[in-house]
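Bench notes, afternoon.
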Amino acid sequence: MTIKALAETFLPHIMKCRLDSEYGQLAVLSDVHEGLNNRKYLQQTVKNLLELGENCKVILGGDSTNTTTKHSKGSVLEETLVGDEQVYALVEDIRPLYESGQLLGVIGGNHGARAYNDAYISVEQMICALLGNRSLYKGEFGLLYFNVNKNCYVHHILHKNRKTKNYYDYFNADVTWFEHFHEPSAVPKVAIEHNKYTKKPIVKEVWELRQSSFQTFPNYLKASGIRPSLSGFWIAEMSGDEHNKKVTPFMGDTYFDLRKRGLYVN
């Protein structure tokens, strides 16, 4: 494969955003698992994101619906919504973010992939079509170029991914978002870029953000002895100060709470 051909394979996954602001935020709502989740929590999250306004952009990550199939570990008997009910409910819950202009894209996950492998039906593409914009669907991962004033931040969002340390460093992203495992953590790292004009190395801080989920604690996890985790997601706040290019991650609920209490104002 030539370099040009390789580069072209990434084109369908690209999203772009530009803000003229001192700060911008990105929230990735992954592993929503509509139909086997805390739907009220999702709806409250959407309400909180709407209150942050147009400077807060959102990506709907993988496994947005639970979509149990005969090849799933879960049971359809445990779901509160089944089949197409999950798709319609998710579209209803997410639509306000699309109508506000905050929703940038939709990423696929392994739950939707099972439905596609079994029946050639793409749950995520159905969601985008029902929202009214099929181009929102970005495949199994996303690449977002997010400008806040002159600062351009690169976000690499993956659903199913390797746990191998440093495996995805070749993307040289400012923030790499890992979904699927429901194990929330934030890891700061040092990365080196090179200014080829001044002939100097540039040291910068980058982040690996591992997502939690909106899922409840299903029986197959209990039976496997897997530890439960708190529901949630990350918000990455990005500075528009060209002399202080910086990403600061917050757990979503912590961010909302700090702002509502007046303890944090960007």
